[in-house]
Amino acid sequence: MIDNPSQLKSHYDQQGYFVIRDYFTGAEISSLREVVLKFHQLWKKDNETFYKEEAFNSSLITGSEYLSFDDRVKLFNFISSKKIMAVVESVIPAKPSFMNTQLFFNPVNPQQKDFWHRDCQYDHEVEEQKKAILETQVVHLRVPLFDELGLELVPGTHKRWDNEEEYNVRQEKKGRLSSENLSTGKAIKLAAGDLLVFSADMIHRGLYGMDRLALDILVFDPAGDFADYVDDDCLPETSMLSQLDDPSLYMNTLHLKSIKR
Questions:
Q1: In the chain, what are the domain boundaries?
Q2: Which CATH class is domain 5-260?
């Protein structure tokens, strides 16, 4: 388990991310990899054209479309395990809520380049983006299933707006491309067993290469209005809840969705 939660929280508040090396055992990663690869193989077959032409991630890994009941329970138990919850609660201490999962992999097209972004740019125009980074809290927990090049982040941008270089590259202004290097970027290489925690709204990009296959767990602060973003199918069925060691992460989301209806 983590030794100093307050130190992690302090680093996250200041930098927007932290890494815990060798957090998971080989057995834990092997068990998780087995379930995730079942999903990945079926998803690739079902989305063959999209996968071959442009895909670099998938989502709703915990959904019912590709995994059996037992495999979903296994995955839900990993996501809400004591190790994960200790980290989640160090960043979001009050009723953290489950949003989704994503799986990141290398694009098939070798010409496809990684790109800088903030997650909020896909939902908001610029002025709303500026507001979102100050008010909302969505956290990615990245669990690499194989050794990989990892992510490149711009530390501190979870709490500040882009400088001119960052904005022009990320938004592809003034002839710049979102795949260009940033002078403020910091690359973080990851190995299977590591855990990277980072703010969804900081400037970041995945780094393609090696055997990239990483499971991202997304959680949010219930003070943010994110319940509508959660797909019902990615949450545990009622009959699953009794089989989960700690269902609180999902119960918090289910509660938020129930009061929205």
A1: 5-260
A2: mainly beta
- Contact of 151 with 205, CB cutoff 8 Å: yes
DSSP string, the chain: --S-HHHHHHHHHHHSEEEETT-S-HHHHHHHHHHHHHHHHHHHHHTHHHHHHT--EEE-TTSTTTS-HHHHHHHHHHHTSHHHHHHHHHH--S--EEEEEEEEE--S-TT-----B-GGGGT--HHHHHHHHHH--EEEEEEESS-EEEEEE-TTTTSS---HHHHHHHTT-TT--TTS--TT-EEEEE-TT-EEEEETTS-EEE---TT-EEEEEEEE-TTSS-GGGS-GGGSPPHHHHTT-S--HHHHHHHHHHHHH-
CA geometry: angle at 9 spanning 25 and 78, to 5°? 30
CB 39 within 8 A of CB 66: yes
Q: Which residue has the tokens 């996968």?
A: 51
pLDDT of residue 259: 86
Nearest to 204 by CA among 136, 142, 248, 131: 142
- Determine the pLDDT at residue 97: 97
- Cα dist. 138→55, 193, 201 in Å? 23, 22, 7
pLDDT tens-place string over residues 90-119:
999 999 999 999 999 999 998 899 999 999
pTM more than 0.90: yes
Q: What pLDDT is recorded for position 261? A: 67
Is residue 125 within 8 Å of residue 195, measured between CB atoms?
A: no
Given this model, what pLDDT does residue 67 score?
98
pLDDT beneath 50: ranges in the chain = none
Give the CA angle between residues 77, 83, 85 to the nearest 5°: 75
> Burial code of 164-180, b = ≥16 C-beta within 10 A, e = fewer?
eebebbbbeeeebebee
